[in-house]
Each structure stands twice: as structure tokens, then as C-alpha cells.
Amino acid sequence: MVFGPPNYTASTDKAPDYSRNFGRNQNRKGDKKPPPIPTGSNGQGIPAQPSAGWTPNTSSTGKQTMRPLMLCQPFVKASLLKGSFKTIVVLPKYVDEGEWIALNVFEFFDYLNRFYGVVTEFCTVRNCPSMSAGPGLDYSWLDANRQPTRLPAPTYIEYVMTWINNRLNDETVFPTKASPTTTASLITPSAHSATNSGASTPVAGQPGNWIGKEGGFPPSFFQTCKAIYKQMFRVFAHIYHTHFDKIVHLSLEAHWNSFFAHFIHFAREFELLEKRDMEPLKELIDAFDAQIAANSSTNKAT
User: Fold this and answer.
1) Cα distance between residue 131 and residue 151, in whole Å
2) Reported pTM
3) Run of H or E residues at 55
4) 3-state SS assignment for residue 2
């Protein structure tokens, strides 16, 4: 079964086939040597300096502060969809939940990879010496000795993209041939680091049951998806806080905002992100929610 995703990229290229091939993109290079597992916690490094993605804002006290460009008008309202993504994130009838989650995780990764390619020439070691997600927040990386390490953003993102791509191409994590009798278990460091394990049990009180079991996915499947989702969110956060001005310059803010809104709606529907993980973009998410509520009220009034 092939599902047609929204086309967020302003490209004339044919949309990829999102059937059960997951990470098997023939255009991608072979797997690189796996980088350290991206389970680093939020670092409290040197506060990031405001970049071109920030704009002056005068508060009620008259004191000038820096307001993220992503929260300024008209960019915060730029969208391809006037309404909620609820209808396109819900589990379709007769589709296995694990299959649906896996399919969408691959789609989000594929589109995120494309969007990052748009700003990659600006995301350099010199411009982005840390994986910043706003003032006062730098994501750190756990090295081979499990010590938090501050990496330049392009290095961090390269590690993340390589790690995710390797997971999507790992048959023991994302099998391409459904096998309902599969009971293989792959417990990775990322799976151990993820939380909310209760969400991975679709039917409470029934041991041996997990999301994706019917589709042949391993018991660690849901936790691995959460770990992947968490890292993708960090890439979103960095691009929004540091490179959103480039997105605006290319007139892609409506595409980018819609993509992120879809990403968040799906995360909420299947509990793939913790509230604390979304904190760096909480104001933006709240703004999107307010717009949806306002549009809904307007439609009811008419």
C-alpha cells in the first residue's frame, strides 16, 4: 500500500515511493561508520548569540529584547494548510500501527534531510560552533565514553542523519518484509534512554504485546522511533532558531511551517515526543495551536 504524503518541498522532482522500503533510497550513499549513539542530554553551554534569525522586539517596559523571527508576523502564520493535520495523522483503517509509524518516520526523515540540504551551506563550523536551539540551550553529544561533548551543529546533524539512516536501513529494526511471527529483540542504547515505555504497550496487561508486533517489528521498535523523533526535533529546533531567515529568504516558510506542524501533530497522536523535548519550540507550537483554534472558531461562525 502506498500513501501519498503532502509535498512540502518546492521541487519538480517526482515524489519518492513511500511504500515499504523505508530507508532504502537508491540515491543515498552506502552506510557510513555508525557515529556515537545520539543520546546526549541538553547541555547548558555558553548562551547562543542572536543570529540573523532574530529580530528586535520592544516590550511593554520599553526595553528592547530579541524575538525569534519565526514568531514574528507574517512568518508565524505562513502555512500551506488552514486547519488541523488531525485527519492525516490518524491511523488509517486496516493499517498496522507499527507500519504507519514506520512509514511516517521515514517520510519525516526524508523531508527533513531535503530541507537541511537547503540551509547546509550556511550551517558551517564557523557560523554554528554549537548545536544551538536558542539562547542558553546547546545540545550536547555523548561520546564513546558517554561524556557530554559540545559539537559544531553541522557535525552534530551529520551524526544524527547518519545514525537515523543506519537505523532505517537495519532489517532487525525496520524489516522490509512483514513477518507477524517475528519475536526478535534489538535493545539499543537509544531504546534504553527513551522514556514513556508504557506507550509502547498497545494493550495494557498483556505481556508480549507491543506496537508493531503484527507487522514484524521488534519489541524495541517504538522506543527506537521515539529516539529518532527526538533527534529530528533537535534539527528542527536548530534550523528554526538559527537559519529561519534563510528559509524566509527562499520563500519556503509556508512549506517549512506546514512540515513542522505535521511532524508535531503526528508526535502528539502517537506520543513520540515528551513535553520537555518540545520546550525549545514551545512558543511556536503554541502559536500554531492558537491559529488552528482561531480558524476553527471562524469556520463555525460562518
Assistant:
1) 7
2) 0.73
3) strand 54-58
4) coil
